[in-house]
Structure formats: C-alpha cells, structure tokens
Amino acid sequence: MTATVHDVAILSDFRYPGGTSASIAAEVRAQARAGLTTVLVHVRSPHLKRDRPFHPLITELIRDSSAYLAAEGEDVAARLLVVRQPRIFTEDLPVRPKVAAGRSVMVLNQAPGDAGDPARYYDFAEVRTRVESLFGAGIEWAPISPQVRAEVLRSEPEAILTGVDWHEVIDGSEWWAEHVPRDGAPVIGRHGRADPVKWPRTGEELLQAYPDLPDVKVRILGGGELAVERLGRTPANWEIIGFGTCEPAEFLRGLDFFVYFHDPDLIEAFGRTIMEAMAAGVPVIVGEHFRPLFGDAALYTTPEGVLPLVRELWADRGRYRSVCLRGREFIEARYGYGSHLARLAARGIRPDAPPPPALAPPQPPPPRGVLLVSDNGVGLGHLSRLMAIGRRLPGDAPAVVATQSHGAMVAHREGFLTEYIPSRSVLGLARQSWTELLRSRLEHLIDLHRPAVVAVDSVPHDGIVAAARSRPGVRWVWVRRPMWRRGTGAEWIERRQAFHHILEPGEFAAAADEGPTVDDRDGVHTVRPITYLDAAELITRTEARTALELDPDRPAALLQLGAGNINDISSPAARIARHLRDADFQVVLAESAIACEPMPPVPGAHVVRVYPISRYLRGFDLVVSASGYNSFHELIAFGIPAVFVPNRETALDDQVSRARFAAAAGAALIVEDPDGDDLDRVLARAVRADVRDALSSRCAEVAPGNGAADAADWLTALTALT
C-alpha cells in the first residue's frame, strides 16, 4: 500500500502556548482553505518541562480535519516539510522522526539569544548540525523577521539564510471589528502569555506605557500579574484578565489602543499580538524597532510618549479611524493568507484548484536608493560631503541620511529624510556596547529603508563592519576622503575589505598627500573634489550683503575657524577680528551649525549661524578659515581670497599640509602659528586689495570643479546592479 503524500508536513511541538502554535494554526488554515493537505508531526521540545496538552488551536485543526496528526513513529511523506522552533533541537531527539520530503524549510521563529547573551536560548551552529543530520543539508533556513535574521547572523556570520523572511500570516476577516471611538476614557491594553521579559523593566516605564490615571483605562489579558508584581500594587484603573479566559479577538474588541513595550534586552521575534491587534482594527503603539515589520501602519514612540499620543489621537476621531483602516489594509496586503500561499507556490506547492483571489494585488517594490551614513559627532565635514552627493541623486534613487553628527537637523532642514544615531561620546558607552548599538541601528535602517547602496563617509568602526557582514545583500561603499596625516589610520585601511567599493573625493592638494590612502589605490573610484554647492548656486554679492546686513560700501571679511568642538578657536578669532577691524573691514563670525557651546563674544564681530555659509561667499572680500576639506575646496573652487589657519588637533585630516600646498600654489595664504607674529604679518598682506585680486585670479586658474554630480551618477549606477 502506497503511503499518502501530503502537500505540507509541519514538524514542531504543538504544546507551545503562544505565538508558535498560533502561527502554525494560521498556516494550516490557509493551506486547508486552498485545498492543500497538511500532516502534523509532533516532537517534544526539551525546554517544555511540564507536561501540557496541545494548544487549543491545534486541537481544533485536528478535530475539524484541517490537518492530520501523524502517530508517533509513523512514516510520513510530504512534498514540503516545514520545521518550527529551533529550541526543539538543543538536545538530541529521543526518537528520529520518519519524514520524507521533497523540500524542507527550518523556520527560525525565535532569535538565538537576546541583547545580553546572543546564545541564551540556543546555539545556532549546534542546532544546524542536529537539524541537517535529521533532514539533510539542503534544508532552507528561513528567519521569521529582520530581528531574528540579524541575531542569527550576529551569532553565526557565515549562516546561509533565505533571502525573504518566512513571516507570520493571519486571516484578517476573522479579527476585524469596526472601531468607533466611544465617549469617556480611552481603553488601552495588551494580551499575551505571561513572561517577565514581555514587560518594561522598570516600574517607571511600565506606568508610562500603561498609566495609572483616572482618565485612562487599562485592560490586560495574560501576564498582568507580572506587571502587578513589578509595581508592588494593582493600579485602580487596571483590569487584569487571566490568560486563556477570554478569546484574543473578543478581548481586542474592547480596546481602543493596543500598547506593547517589553524589556530592552528582549529580541522580539515577530510580534504576533501586534499583528492581531492591527487585523482587529485597533491602533497599535509600539517601539521604533518594530518599524521594519509594520511600516507606517503602526504608531511608534517610547513609553513616555504613549499617553500624549493616545490623547492626541483620541481627540481626532477622523485620524483615529484612518489609523484603524490603515492597519487593517496593511495586514491584509502584507501578512494575509495569500502571502503564505505565494511562498508555498515558490517551492512548488500549488493547489489543484486556483487559490482564492488575493486580498490586494501585489504592489511593485519601491525604488531602492542610497543610505548615506556619516561619522563624527563633532564636525559637519562627513555629513556635508554626503549631502552634496545625495542632493544630486535622481528622484528614482531616494537618499536617506543616517548621521552621528550633531548636524542631523541641518540635513533635515535641507530636505533629507534623516535618521540620527547618537555617537559613542554622546552616549558615554563602552566600546563593545557602542559597537552593538551601531550595528543594530544600521541593520534596522537597512531593513526599514531597503537601500541598494550604503555609502559610509566614516572610518570603518566595528559596528559598521559588523552591519556590512550581516547585510551583504546591499552594496557597501566607503566614501574615503584622502589627505590623512602621515603615520595615522593604518588600522582603518586594513578594514577596507568590509566594503564592495571605495569612492574617493578629489583633493586639490593631492601632490602633498603623505597619508596611508596614497598607497591603497586598488579598486578606488575617484572624482573631483566635492563641494555642497556649485558656483552657479551662490547668490550675488549684493544679495549676500543684504541678507547678512552688511554695509555695501565697506570691505567685509568672514571668519570660519570650525565648530570649536575639537580645538579652542576663541582666542585666534579675537586677534584676527581686531586686526581686520583696524583695516576697516566689517567682520562676520560664522558660528558652526553644530557648535556645542555659543562662541564667546568677539568685539566688533557680527555672528551668523547659517548653512551652507558657502551660499553667501560672494559677499565677502576675504575669508579667514580652517583648512578642513569642505571649506578649503569651496574657497578654492569659488575664487574667494582666503587665509587658512589649519587645525592641528584633528585625528586624521592633514589640514597643515593642505593649507601649505594652497599657499605654495599661490591660491591662498597660510598662518602657521596663530599665537605668534605670523598672524599679524599674514593678515597685513591679506587686507591689501592687490593681494586679494591675485589670489582670486590664481584660484580661477587652478579650480578643479565639483565632483559631487559624478559621485552621484556613479552611486546611481551601483543601485541598478543590486
């Protein structure tokens, strides 16, 4: 007698009380509705110590013949085997399952560990060895979410995973209920199994997310006793309902907001209860880390932001309803049964009859653009170079800026979608903690924005290298400015293999470059020096002077000596301003847009704080400037007479050699020692009109042009290759 060949075999422990069993039940329902047959193969998980029955949803599937339960030791044949819950394989199984399948998938529906211990729940390599010994080396390894994918790759960087997540599915029609805001206090709540890590760690955050206030009601289905224990009391406005005493769909109909926050160390595999709430039409408020899964359909904040968001939405009934509908539509389109049938079909499992029509036609994927990642919490140079490239990318290659610079708001004001990543110095973190945070944040941004290219204007910190390894499906580009100080940075050059490509902005003073990048040329794509603006974008002398409130009939000088975050610029600024005032110059002091502290007053100087200051350069007869990459090349490119006062305290940038080269080329003057007589001697020359005219003329002869558009074109070409 020939054994029955089922369409799908699902192997798991069907006693799990939470999302694992609910997810299995949803997939079986989708398969049964499409006319596909399912056999369930039960194995006992070693970490479920207490004896317990099958989950009620699994029992119901067996009773109504949606699935067939194989007897222990029975030979099972299926076209596709789906294995769920890797923790089952943390020990050898007492009995080897007898399953023969054409294809096999291991669904990784739990991360190996959490933020504190990457292997707290299972050792991926150990589990892989056991699973492959049971089901063959050809089994697919499918994470359930970007979070699980990232954690698996953190524990095993060489793991080969499916390109697409095996996400959860749900039948929205079984959950939906029209939600009309009622009069009175809004009801916020949550449901789920009892687990301490499923709750905020501190009592303060717990009460921020689930307030103890008379104008808000809180309802909790499952786990509420843990929250009460953590608080040491039961708030008067809380209603605690025992897990399993009420169906989740019925419970959700009594909520106005679903709010879910958990312990910061927990790596939430997916968030099925969040999906259920959205399917039920309840507005969902969660942490930002869920955005890769739920996009714009959920509302994101911190525990502290819950109450203001609830009150804001409760007062706007039209917006409230739109959030309800948006969540339902998103769940139907992204996580409906049709998405599960599509992934089965991709593995050759198709029903004899056509499947029911999809709830919504598949949408074409959005264009994949460029994620521009800048380093440095103290300067604007990295960020400005990337924005110079980003503003020249075509519309079908959208740019997102992710920066550690205090200038994140500058990028936002310039029209970029901007993500701020606080630097290590701002957060005061230990190196390893900072590495993990940077890696995690970059992975999240890549999963969220789906760029084809990540362009990093930074040295390759450990967190950047780790993120590049965990997200190999995008092209990583190191935007590496040259002119490093001699004898520095060799350790960064050694990490170039983390990137697919290197893009090098040009350097006017390249002939004087003695840094380590000079000898590292293989595969480096070079462009002309990059400036934020082209010459045609500068406003006229009259317009600039009007905007800056300068006397049109007197010479004017601009002082831009940097952010003041690396070296002390106040003393040289005062001396320079005094010398220029004595020569009848109007003095404008450019305060950096990211200066941590306001500059001390400089007598007779008018302070401006604008970005980009280069737009106003034609309004000045002279500029006294540090010789950082951006300001140096702007002044040379736009023919502005300049005196460079190089910053000698930078970690990598060789401002001294750059300024010396410009002076030797006759394109600028240099003050080698701002604390000595050199300052007065150089400024005495700079205030002379004939000297300034000669500097402008020389700049016109040697100006190299702007390579920002060329860099943008090159990155755009890379997006087409991904």
UniProtKB/TrEMBL annotation:
Q: Does the keyword Transferase apply?
A: yes
One GO MF term = hexosyltransferase activity
SUPFAM superfamilies recorded: UDP-Glycosyltransferase/glycogen phosphorylase
Using the record's annotation, list all stretches that form the Glycosyl transferase family domain. Answer: 186-288
Signal sequence range: none
Task: Give all residue intervals belonging to the Glycosyl transferase family 28 C-terminal domain.
Answer: 613-687
UniProt KW keywords: Transferase
Tree of life domain: Bacteria
Protein name as it appears in the record: Glycosyl transferase family 1
Source organism per entry reads Actinoplanes italicus
